[in-house]
Design goal:
about 240 residues; alpha+beta; Protein Transport Mog1p, Chain A; eight-stranded antiparallel beta sheet; 4 helices; disordered N terminus; disordered C terminus
């Protein structure tokens, strides 16, 4: 499995710890997310060459981590407002309010939980219109622990972008990492990937995942194990 340039595949395993595996091969260069949440064209202009991926899922959402042929890191998360234990949709909240709610969760809960991130700073935060619809674009600078980065890295600061948008009961969070601050390029990469998502996605069939060794390391109760099994079956992958 191909890893990103940083020893830490940033945000690649912090939101969904329930299960992680390499998705099975899919036809026509499309990735189909669990629960028909979305389909993503792997021929997107945001990606160059062949890609390697890891997939993670919980009953309340999931994520795909992508490294392209240039070893650039992308990630797409989706969260179910109804099922998520932390991010809940207030009654009658509009899309902008929900986008801010999700971004606050990432900035205040997800990012600070990373032990290799010393500090973070918001460099850009604004609503962006695109052919994929309106979304919230936020770019953070992350000061990393020097021990966690390669010796040939330019410095210990990386730039991490989020494009957050809502469709129905789901929030979608498209992410990309840069080693040099290029806000216009960050925007272009995130919006392009979002535009190549089809929502809802296409149902597809795959073999069940049966790596019970992972369950033993993560969960304790039978209910949690059952929830993990449901997630790895990806609801509609039966």
């Amino acid at each position: 499995m191909k890893r990103g340039r940083l020893s830490l595949a940033l945000l690649a395993s912090i939101t969904f710890a329930g299960c992680a595996h390499t998705p099975p091969p899919q036809t026509q260069a499309f990735y189909h997310a669990p629960s028909n949440a979305y389909s993503l064209s792997l021929g997107s202009q945001a990606l160059q060459g062949s890609v390697s991926m890891t997939e993670q899922c919980e009953p309340y959402g999931g994520s795909i981590n992508i490294w392209d042929a240039k070893n650039r890191f992308f990630r797409v998360d989706y969260l179910n407002f109804i099922e998520h234990p932390t991010v809940h949709s207030p009654s009658f909240a509009n899309d902008r309010t929900l986008n801010e709610l999700v971004m606050n969760y990432y900035q205040n809960d997800v990012v600070p939980a990373q032990k290799n991130i010393i500090s973070n700073k918001v460099l850009f935060h604004d609503t962006v219109n695109s052919t994929a619809g309106e979304g919230l674009l936020s770019i953070l600078s992350l000061e990393m622990n020097k021990k966690s980065i390669p010796k040939d890295a330019l410095d210990n600061t990386v730039y991490y972008g989020f494009f957050v948008f809502r469709r129905g009961d789901f929030a979608y969070i498209v992410q990309h990492r840069q080693e040099i601050y290029q806000p216009e390029r960050m925007k272009a990469m995130l919006v392009t990937l979002a535009q190549d998502m089809t929502i809802p996605g296409k149902n597809y069939y795959a073999n069940n995942i049966g790596n019970l060794g992972v369950i033993d390391q993560v969960f304790g109760s039978q209910n949690e194990i059952n929830a993990w099994k449901k997630a790895t079956q990806c609801d509609n992958r039966k």
